[in-house]
Amino acid sequence: MSYIHKDRxxxxxxxxxxxxxxxxxxxxxxxxxxxxxxxxxxxxxGKYLHFYLNPNRKIDKEAYKIHGISESFLLDKPTxxxxxxxxxxxxKKSEIIVHNAIFDISFLDYEFRNLNCGIKKISKFxxxxxxxxxxxxxFPGKKNSLDALxxxxxxxxxxxxxxxxxxxxxxxxxxxxxxxxxxxxxxFNLKNLYSxxxxxLKKSTVFQPSKILFANNLENKKHKxxxxxxxxxxxx
Length: 236
Prior knowledge:
Strand order of the largest sheet: 3-2-1-4-5
Shape: globular
Order of helices and strands: EEEHHHEHHEHHHHH
């Protein structure tokens, strides 16, 4: 199946087993969840890719506290090697929208490289747009995490007591459209937007637009700590 379209963008987010506080950020770590949403002509098409992945290694306690994905939950899930072709097809020759590309894209490049299949770096076959950099230009000197941006743009931020790749991709999609709208009308297919099922949540609680819940202070502190570690690793 071909996903190529000249105005096609994919919104991407991942969760991992953790990251290294010193040295290479991603070395010996694995992606355990990936969520990718398709947008064409600034409209969500209803197409998305979502996988939980068995890393065949332990999950750092600090990472578990953030995403809540356990090793036991992932035992019967496919490995990255079993799903990489689906991921590659979905993102190939598209513009990837990601919040903090240094983290997500570095992990994905690392996973592809470990397959020893000769896959080039993602930047060679995709355009990468980092919404963190966009946010810093719009709001210099301010906090620009997903939660902070949701508050700023008054975007519904429900079911986010724990991080989820698919939910975060959905949130990022709306943030990206707002940050790049330039007073254009943002078109949402609400039927599709709120119909994405998250398997670990009850159907009745998924994406209810009447309910608003922002991240708590503890989660914001943990997110800030993660971002600071990332900055430290890549500033050396």
